[in-house]
Amino acid sequence: MDFTDYFPVWGKLTPIQQKRILGAVMTRTVKKGTVIHNGSMDCTGLLLVKSGQLRAFILSEEGREITIYRLFDRDMCLFSASCMLRSIQFDVTIEAEKDTELWVIPAEVYQGIMEESAPVANYTNELMAARFSDVMWLIEQIMWKSLDKRVAAFLLEESAIEGSRELKLTHEAIANHLGSHREVITRMLRYFQSEGLVRLSRGRITILDEKKLEALQE
Predict the structure, then answer these.
(1) Which DSSP helix (H) or strand (E) runs through 97?
(2) All domains in the chain, ordered by first residue
C-alpha cells in the first residue's frame, strides 16, 4: 500500500495533478512523543497518516494542554498547514502518540491543486467541517459535562483504541488530554477505584467495570 492508495480523492485527480503531488510528497517516520507541528508559525504541510497515532491539541493561557482530536491510519490533518488556513485564530500542536509513519504534502502544492480541482476542494471543505465539529463537541463537553463523565468517557475511548482494559496511562497524560490538572485527575481516579470501577498501579489503569463507566459517562 502506498500514497496513492491512502490519498482519499486520488482517482479524481488529473494525471498532471497526480504527478505534481507525487513529486512533492515526503515520507516521515516519527517516534512517540515527537512534536510534528508547533502552532501557527509552523507551516508543516498536510499530514496523511499511514500507520500509528497522532494527537492534535491546544494550550490554554495557563499552559494546560487539551486534546481536540486524534488521527489514526488514513486520517488527514489540515491544521498542520497553518499558512493555508489564515482564518484560524488558535494554535494547534500535533504530537505523535505512537511511533508513526506518515506522508507530508507541502501546503503550497496542495493549495494549488485544490484551486484547480473541485473534488479536492469538496473533500477539504468536508474535512474542515468535520474538524470544527470535533472542536465544537469538545467545547460542549467542557461546558456542560462534569469531569467524572469526561474521565469515564476518555477511559472507555482509550480502551476501545487499544483493544484492552489495561491501559498504559499516567494521570498527567489524562490531564493533558482533558485540559485539567494532574492532582484533580488523581483524585477522580482514586474515587473510581474506591467505587470498583478501575484499579490503579504505577503507569497503568485497569478497567474493572465497563458497564458502570458507560452508565457514568451518559
Answers:
(1) none
(2) 3-143 (2.60.120.10), 145-217 (1.10.10.10)
- Reduced to 3 states (helix: H, G, I; strand: E, B; else coil), residue 203 is coil
CA–CA gap between residue 107 and residue 92 (Å, rounded): 16
**Whether pLDDT at 89 is above 70:** no
Q: Which three cell numbers stand for residue 98?
A: 505512537
Contact (Cβ atoms closer than 8 angstroms) between residue 114 and residue 121: yes
pLDDT band for position 82 (cuts 50, 70, 90) = confident
What pTM did the predictor assign? 0.83
Written as one letter, the residue type at 38 is N
Q: Which of 125, 87, 90, 109 has the alpha carbon at shortest distance from 22? A: 109
Q: Which helix (H) or strand (E) holds 176?
A: helix 171-178
Residue 179, amino acid: G
Distances (CA, A) of 134 to 41, 59, 69, 91, 148: 23, 16, 7, 16, 20
Q: CB within 8 A of 23, min separation 6: which ones?
A: none
Contact 40, 89 (CB under 8 A): no
Collapsed DSSP state (helix, strand, coil) of residue 201:
strand
CA 184 to chain centre: 23
